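Sequence in, structure out. Go.
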Amino acid sequence: MRAYQIFATKHVILRALHHLEGLIDGIAADRTVDCAEVLKFREWLNDYAHLKNRLPFQELFMYVEKAVADGILTEEEIEDIRWLCKKIDSELIPSANGDIQRLHGLLQGIIADHVLSVEELEKLEFWLNEHEVLKGCWPYDEICSLLVSLKKDKILGSEQHATLMKYFSDFSQSETKVFERKSISGICACDPQINIAGSEFCFTGESHKGISRAEIAKKVLVAGGIFQENLRKSADYLVVGSEANPYWFYACYGRKIEKAQNWRRAGHKVCIVHENDLWDALADAGYE
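Output:
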């Protein structure tokens, strides 16, 4: 029992540490720290108060507590916290797990002041590009797709702002009541690598080509793939037809997409792709 408790405590400490690292990077992304953002550090202290007397966490906890006591976080204090995090983070854990925890904190930090700036999104994009090891993991692909959609629009308008805030807030489980549910794009993976031979496919929505589900299945089968009418956990790809509503409501993407999203959250590797990527993959393989 004692060995389990020690392991569990290490795991919780590392989670707290990675959360804090991401929180710092998110909040410092726009180079300003306001009262709402300092409040996020106090929430972090609250969340992990039960660890405050645990070594080596104790030193970090006391420093953060002292740093936010005056309601101000200086650049020097932020750098000191970063340094302490790196000093403590000497335990070995799977890198993807640690990076997802950092992404959680990063997004929470970015939305802490309820405002998204172009500079913050650029920093987020840079972080994602530096952590391509997460490709295929939820919600890495979804966030990349949202940012690509934003680049195509070439503007951060009120609708785009609300969409990103809603998605980031839901992933980071940030407590906020000021944002209503909005429609959301960015369902499909951006520039996915699709291997047809031996892979299992399922289709949802209607194809812009105007062809039937049976015709789509035939194309996949001829190329050596497997086609299933119903989405199964063994599926490699869920293909979304572009004639589906371009703005799926966040609360109900559509049954298959919602199911695929939930499975991705649980660690299954089903990849959600746009039908155009399937047609490109078929063409590349010589099956137009």
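Check: Residues 1-8, 174-185, 245-253 have pLDDT under 50 and may be disordered. The longest strand covers residues 200-204.
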